[in-house]
Amino acid sequence: MAKKESYAVIGIGQFGASICEALVQAGQEVLAIDSSEEVVNEFAGSVMRAVIADAQDEDALRDLDIGSFDHVYISIGKNVEASIMATLIAKELGAPDVICRAENVNHARVLERVGADMVVRPEHDLAKRLVFQQLNPSVIDYVTLSKEITLAEVNINNPKFFNKTLDELDFRNRYNVNVIIIVSKNDEVNQMPQANDVIQPHDKITVVGQLKDIRKLNDIVS
Questions:
Q1: What pTM was computed for the model?
Q2: RCK C-terminal domain spans which residues (predicted)?
Q3: Number of domains the chain contains
């Protein structure tokens, strides 16, 4: 089970509601905050606590001790000013990890400048993910770890890779990626692959590297 931490979600629209539901399902403690009494009443029974508050009211957020939460999600929708102010206040009150939803690239830039630790654009990010997976069918899933580094799970479908050791395939020098996990077609997981481990037909490998190199690898292993 995941480590139990405290979460506050400010703005319970479609995105914020989904965050709350996912956190509750993971057994986490969630404070849901919204300016709408109707929305708060709807969530009162499903989260640890749900309160009516103005995200731009510093005194209200201080009274809720926002700075003490391990993670604060600012998921306010169209009200860009409220989103920016809530982010600024949360950081000034000492919140260590503030994750914000942005409406567009300019909004994202401002959120980063006022202290957001992470900024997401759900529709934009989903579109990029869908297109990437369509263009790279052998990549089952991926996570962007930084601007430079991506972790991806890749299906090995090219017979040239079958029944060869990691040492023979030499992923690091030939493809500029590191293999960190191998999963067999029977879902047996090798979490510490060694140089003499053999890639079997249709194994899935988890690799770490630059996105451009993972794309090149996808073209080869497909």
A1: 0.69
A2: 137-222
A3: 2
